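My hope is that you will study the protein record below before we discuss the fold together.
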Amino acid sequence: MANRWASSVCLGLVSLSTTAAADAIVDPEVELQPPSEVAPTSTSTTIPGVTPRIAHDHGPWGGGVRVTGLSGIGALPGVNVGREIAVFVRHHEWFGELALGRWQPQETLVVTATPEPVELALDVWSLRGGWASRSMPLRAWMLVESGELAGSDGMSNAVARMVSMGVPDERRWVAVGGGVGVAWPMADHVRLVGTVELAIPVERTPLMVSDGTFEPDPAAARCALGVEVGWR
């Protein structure tokens, strides 16, 4: 008898709870309330002890100086090495720059067609203009070059001769071309710059050198790596 009574009580309780739950679900007078606030979850990750770098907008104008080491082929015999210093100005995503560079062949050669024998080299002005992204470290440009092969008195007097158009015809270098590069930020005003260029000489005049006759190739390919300082 006691077991029957306990079973009846349990069945009654189960029935009441089921009925109450069903009534709560279908009761039309029960008003559903939307959640009052949904808090967004953060996906950013911070590294202890490291302060994230914030890009600074320096306005529509910028400029600076770049110093690079050069390597290439085509302008002089064999592998060419050199150095360059450039000054540039930027307006929005367009830039222009003027650079002065000196190239030498990897192996020393002497030009015998000059009044006094001199080592073969190339002193050159480069004028570049093109596009430099402000959101990515990319840039591309066109270039025009004018210079002197086998400057008889080195870089200092070669600059004066190039400016005054006093370069002899047989040693004049004129070329056009273009290039692309990457300027990777190292600090707010310092960038690591890598470039690749192709220059096509307008005239190719043979020169007598110590091991025969030299003539520039139809195109000169170069790469450069250096440091740029300035406002981007």
